[in-house]
Protein 1
Amino acid sequence: MKLHYEIPANDLTYAGEASSSVKKKLVQLGIDPALVKKAAVSMYEAEINAVIHGNGGFADVEVSSDRIIVTITDKGPGIPNIELAMQEGWSTASDEVREMGFGAGMGLPNIKRYTDKLDIDTQIGEGTKVTITVEFNKRL
Amino acid sequence: MKLREVVEILDATLISGNDLDMEIVSACGSDLMSDVMAYVKENVLLLTGLVSPQVVRTAEMMDIKVVVFVRGKVPGENIVELAEEKGITLMSTDNPMFIACGKLYDAGLTGKGVW
Ligand SMILES: Nc1ncnc2c1ncn2[C@@H]1O[C@H](COP(=O)(O)OP(=O)(O)OP(=O)(O)O)[C@@H](O)[C@H]1O
Ligand SMILES: [Mg+2]
């Protein structure tokens, strides 16, 4: 199953719709709830990042019987230092974003912790592509 | 403890949801959603001073069934609608965060709800 979603820029009311829709589909498919949660939370963190840091973009989701692969692509400023961005607590979020409850600097570390594979492809001034994989058949 | 007791202890106003027999075993208080997503375990009650649709989204992703807004904060209609759609119970209490957590803890809700 292949799914495609637009992620509007700077709209923190709508942000999370794509992840919510994917979560529902995974539940319908009867995937283990613990795995659904991992995939949904990770996609949600990446979706929020695309909204608050990346000027929006789109999500492509591929679900097969043994894994889900989510790719979130944005046309934002890119990530200058991935090593720093991966550190717990590192954040460049604006005050406005912090008032919405984000900016703990925990998003990327959360994705890392909850997924089996995290791949960040980023170009300064061009954008960022975050690819996450959650395996369904692996023992937890 | 039952959700009914939570409502009594916090003198809270129910905003959405009506399953007051729901069993609550642990709770966590936070205004940072990624912290909630980093540490929260199954089936906690979330206390927060943050009023935003993303609180409901975060609850949805984390399978959090109940959100308590502290310090008298009342969510807007769009937030309530979203919560109803997701089947998430919302309530509001005048107690500030520290007092609300203290009261629930004191009443026996001691599960820390984090890994
Ligand atoms: N898609 C992106 N485009 C540009 N920069 C990004 C992107 N994603 C993350 N970053 C950068 O990496 C930092 C760390 O991201 P991370 O998701 O871990 O934390 P955060 O979004 O700042 O806060 P939190 O996720 O806890 O709400 C961000 O503050 C930002 O500087
Ligand atoms: Mg983030």
Protein 2
Amino acid sequence: MTTYDDRLAAFSGRVLVERRPAPDPVNVPMIRQWVEAMGDANPRYLGEQPVAPASMMQAWTMRGYAPTDASAGAFEELVALLEEGGYTSVVATDSELDFHREVVPGDHLSVEEVVESISAEKRTGLGAGRFVSTLKTYRDSADEVVATQRWRTLRFRPAEPAPEAVLRPRPAINLDNEFWFTAAREERLVVQRCADCKALRHPPGPCCPDCTSFAWDTVEASGRGTLYSYVVAHHPRHPAFDYPLLIAVVELDEGTRLITNLTGATADELTVGMALEVEWLRADADLTLPVFRPVRPREH
Amino acid sequence: MGSLSGQTAIIGIGATEFSKASGRSELQLACEAVVAAIADAGLRPGDVDGMVTFTAESSAEIHVARNTGIGDLSFFSRVPHGGGAACGTVAHAAAAIHAGLAEVVVCWRAFNERSGERYGLGQASRPMDTNADRAAYSWMTPFGLSTPAQWVAMFARRYMHEYGATSEDFGRVAVLDRARAATNPKAWFHGRPITLEEHQASRWIAEPLHLLDCCQETDGGQALVVVSAARAKDLPHVPAYVVGAAQASGRDQHMMTSYYRPTISGIPEMGLVGDQLWAQSGLRPADMQAAVLYDHFTPFVLPQLEELGFCGRGEAASFVADGHLELDGSLPLNTHGGQLGEAYLHGMNGIAEGVRLVRGASVNQPGDVGNVVVTAGTGVPTSALVLGAR
Ligand SMILES: [Zn+2]
């Protein structure tokens, strides 16, 4: 049975584009247009003995704009075979030109393209694809080779756009809570403390409810606490979370409580009052959150 | 000026149908309810000079007034904190009338809460800014705690832990509400009672809350007309006097997540409301012949009974199981079917049921109701009323 790879391999050495003469001989008007467009002032191109710029090699043999028969040749056959494999997109990757002699007005060139190789499937940034290497041979009317061009294209299967990662809902950061989330990014669990009466408070706020002081600092929590209450969330589902989702209120050893997630335990292993310790969840590049796991017995 | 008690009365009630897809604008629902309530009061739109609604309401008073032919307004206000506002609208109306700021005040709430913006879907994807209200969500939504059911579930788990209550204890509230709704033709769940087994078998939403612990979502509108006691005597319906009206926010209050208080098995703001009601009215819990308690989620009905003094702390589960809340019990509850059974109208339909109970016009009238206590949203700054026949 002929595999897909065999069918592709059969193209190696095959003439992809039959030898095709350039529509016009090499001529001064086209050279003039080219060097003007390119801004190339090299006097050799338009001097007493004009020489065509090497970079024009492909230009002499290009097809015109008129429609051509697109159904017949080996090239179309290869394109169809690649499309069958899902390689529907193309990008040119390499072009190595090798010049045998200079081309001058009056030369009537032709080009022929032969497949050298088709690679196995490669992973690329654009998607999985195969490199198709061909050799284009440029000859003059006497069949002398004036240049060769090793031409490589990547025929690829466009990568599925990566599903956009759904992030956890963003905290609304403002002047009153920014310090807490900044500390969390450094994996520090802090609790706001009144700078005057030293009362701890969470969630934080600008003013101490015990003494009305607006001065505050923070203390770093031990990361130990107990399970005060919890919810096993099932519906509705937010795409950033796995369900059932364990959400808890944890009472820290320092006395304040916070809402968090539980990890390292299933719902039926939870009991109100159980000992917990902090673990850091790097939810995404911008958000690190404290979550809590049961304190393992051996650590007592 | 003296006490507010008995100085005003709810004299008109009006509502749209309760549905899942009204097919009409929220403004139209508001206008329909307001027009119906004014007509029920035996008044004309031009008589209205005060309007009160929720901050959550999408239709400002100027739009409702302009569309319904309500003319000059001398008083308007709004009450914040979602369903906690419900009875607060009547409190504002009563206070304004008592203070001489207005004579006829309409209170209303209307929304397409099912076909439009559904609260049950949570706050995770709401637009963000950095004001204090929004920043408060920073402690919840990054951890996936974003829906009302989840917020209540956290309280419920702790209540179960402290008092030994069970999911069945919550379920009995749902069964009771649905039994009342089953015989209320206006209720969404008319003709559809549930059993405790069905409650237990319903899927988890946020453990320990089953689906049947959570109220429905509703499109609709409800309006009430408040006038002075003197004016009420000249109008067609039996007045439902505002015997008590109170709002409260407790110490260390948060929006649905007051998890940082010394204990979270109670609802201190509801206790504060109760204290005011009893002080204003000179009445006691035993003087209530019925109760309409806010029931967006069953677990919060239990601590309401405790905070208002109908039973002791931790005793609500057995109070319910003992049948006190049945139609023939000592405190018939949510005779319209509650928000679990009739409609979720942010508590405003419960006030209308309180009015019907005083009128003797509930579809599940348990006998003469001299006084009924009506509460508003729980877990938020809240409010409550005592409506009476006196
Ligand atoms: Zn202080």
